[in-house]
Amino acid sequence: MDIKKVLALDPATNTHRVGFEFDASGEATLGVVIVSVDSPQYKAEEKRQRMETAVERAKNKGKKIDTGSAEFQEELSEKFDHYAIRRAVAVTVDWFGFTDGKKAAEFSPEMAKQLYERFSGWRGQVLMESERTGNFLPK
Questions:
Q1: How many domains, the chain?
Q2: Which residues of the chain register pLDDT less than 50?
Q3: 44, 32, 19, 22: CA torsion to nearest 10
Q4: Residue range of the domain that includes 69
């Protein structure tokens, strides 16, 4: 593989299709188009999440937190889900196969967020595929 081609890739626009539904021949008929974790949009979201975590830690410094409590564990689980949804939305740049009535549904990050809130498997698949660098290398 030509190193110059690899280094010339633009992570903001180099995309990969992630299928959720397939036809009889194995072609994806429903899914999303994503960019990689190397994209500026993913890195910006990751930075926001780190900053939020740092601020929260600073606010809680010196407080006794019962990490074994069901309340804490539920709150932590919800926060991890929330962060994962935001990262999945950050890498999703388009979709295919979704309709609004009889016409193609226009892509919307807010609608993508709703999909990832409802379908954790899709969210996980998107995040996993966004980390597979081979998905974004030149063919």
A1: 1
A2: none
A3: 170
A4: 3-136
Task: Report which secondary-structure segment, H or E, holds 16.
Answer: strand 16-22
Query: Tokens 């932590």 appear where?
Result: 76
What secondary structure does DSSP assign to 58-90, as a single string? HHHTT----TTSHHHHHHHHHHHHHHHHHHHHH
pLDDT reported for residue 110: 97
Tokens of 32: 């999303």
- pTM for the full predicted model: 0.88
**Single-letter amino acid, residue 34:** I
**How far is it, in rounded angstroms, from Cα 106 to Cα 66?**
45
Alpha carbon distance 35, 16 (integer Å): 6
CA-to-CA distance for 38 and 6, rounded, in angstroms? 13
Token readout for 70 is 């069901």
